[in-house]
Amino acid sequence: MTAHLHIENSRLGSPLAHAGDEHVRAALTRHKVLADRVRVTIGWDGDVLDAALATADFLIAARPPRENLSARAPRLRWIQTTGAGIDHLLPLDWLPADIVLTNNSGPHGPKCEEFCLMALLALSARLPTLVDQQRARVWSSIFTQPIGGKVCLVIGYGDIGQAAVRAAKRLGLTAVAVSRSGSGAGPADRLLPTSALDSVLPEADFVIVAVPLTPQTRDLLGRARLALLRPTAGLVNIARAPLVDYAAMAEMLRDGRLGGAVIDVQDPEPLPADSPLWEVPNLILTPHISCDDPRYVDMLLDAWVANLTRYLAREPLRNVVDRSRGY
After folding, report:
1. Angle at the Cα of 157 (from 115 to 319), degrees rounded to 5?
2. Which of 86, 131, 235, 250 lies at 20 to 30 Å from 278 by C-alpha?
């Protein structure tokens, strides 16, 4: 029996996540199981969505439809998101109990590690301040110690967090990570529960935020916690903007109470031209590019087919979202 996979694209989303005909043709060539067992349809901004949902067994989408999903998609059993974070889909009360939701955790690791290497070296060398001086035509030497031996705190220990830890280790940093449970394998020198966050923030020379956004983690680094950081510390956010109090961060950067920051995520995105963040000193803003590879869709489809093989064999799927945790 041939199953039906519908891929729903949104032109408002990142072009890197657009799965077009060429991507599907290439995936069908790479994967015999996909060519033999699955019929694929592709939609854009809802143009064929209702007709596709009527027969779809599987759905790949950045923003799955939520309204009356059981009635509109009676055969649907599995939804795959195109991104790792699903905070825009919470709460999951719209998701029928018999439909499994998986995210695209995994492909982001290599680019994330490279971005964190860049950000850590930039902050260690005081590059945000040097760029500000260049724009102001100020010649003022800033001398810094080598990065090795300093402490990097990574908040979150999923695929992205572990990539950040690997970057820190490659630079000779002591890598401390915190996660909800504080347990698990991985490359960190120390792994602690999130409840220990206040005690380790003052130790950090660098902090990398890599935790999913949930109701529990929103404003995780608020004003009080940011105040625990050393005035020379560097901050990197590669997760979601609402995890960090950017207004408090901006004040600290202006006042010299924070050494520098590299921020890859904003709220909203794109960042409006009149946002005060554009003018904050000692801050580098990047447009949500830290973890995305131009081969993103190919990697997404390859991972989905690997999971399809498990699905057909009635084996547990990878990257299943825990409804209670929201990630």
Report:
1. 95
2. 86
Residue with tokens 């109090």: 245
Break the chain into its structural domains and give their ranges.
3-107+294-312, 109-285
Joined tokens for residue 18: 């657009």
- 165's tokens: 């830890």
Sequence-separated (6 or more) residues with CB below 8 Å from residue 41: 4, 5, 6, 7, 48, 52, 56
Helix 296-312 / helix 21-30 crossing angle, nearest 10 deg: 50
The CATH homologous superfamily of the domain defined by 3-107+294-312:
NAD(P)-binding Rossmann-like Domain (3.40.50.720)
- Residue 232 parent element (H or E): none
Rounded Cα gap, residues 198 and 189, in angstroms: 18
Return the structure tokens found at 46.
Answer: 């809802």
Concatenating the DSSP letter of every residue in 277-291 gives GGG-TTEEE--S-TT
Domain topology for 109-285: Rossmann fold (3.40.50)
Strand stretches in the chain, DSSP E = 3-9, 38-44, 58-61, 78-81, 100-102, 151-155, 174-179, 190-193, 206-209, 234-237, 260-263, 283-285
pLDDT at residue number 14: 86
Edge-to-edge order in the sheet of strand 283-285: 190-193, 174-179, 151-155, 206-209, 234-237, 260-263, 283-285
CB atoms within 10 A of CB 133: 16
Which residues 6+ apart lie within 8 Å of 96 measured at CB? 69, 70
Catalytic (active-site) positions: 240, 269, 288
pLDDT tens digits, 128-159 = 999 999 999 999 999 999 999 999 999 999 99
Q: What percent of the chain has pLDDT over 70?
A: 100
Quick one: which of 44, 105, 101, 93 has its CA closest to 76?
Answer: 101
